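Before we proceed, please read the two lines closing this message. Report back on whether the structure tokens fit the sequence:
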Amino acid sequence: MQITDVRIRRITKEGKLKAVVSITMDEEFVVHDIKVIEGEKGLFIAMPSKKTSDGEYRDVAHPINSGTRERIQQIILDKFAEMPDEPNEVGEGII
């Protein structure tokens, strides 16, 4: 599996949410609403999730293993770091 496209929408409001990302895999499958979040130890990604009836959040789509999660996170965070700090700027590119 190769990530063939990354599209990032930077969030300029105050808060921990820094961007919302869509990735395309093998030019055939897309995952929307991956979040770039600033935590105590730096930036990380959160996969798309939904709130359940008991108030918990569960991932809608996610990697099966930690190696794949780390690879996806690194690709997204590298692209995010390359983006200008301009408001409403959309960064995109083929990996």
About this structure: Residues 8 and 84 are 11 Å apart (CA to CA).
